[in-house]
Predict the structure.
Amino acid sequence: MKNIQIYQADKYLTSEYTKVEENIYKGRNPFCNGNIWERDELFLTSLTFEQEPEFGEGDSPEHIPQYPLEDILDMF
């Protein structure tokens, strides 16, 4: 992956989400079914990146590779 950047998703500007920090939002967990062990809220952000097929990453969004998140967490 290259050119990893924050993506400014318009959906976070609606009343369904609360801005917590710059580019971090809080919203309702659509998968929560009332289990006491599940969180009813999630913290969200969006990223954009370019895949590099020459490194076996696929050539379309349908083929997104598994990628260790440590690199991304270090950058952001």
Remarks:
- The longest strand covers residues 2-6.
- The mean pLDDT is 82.
- DSSP finds one helix and five strands in the chain.
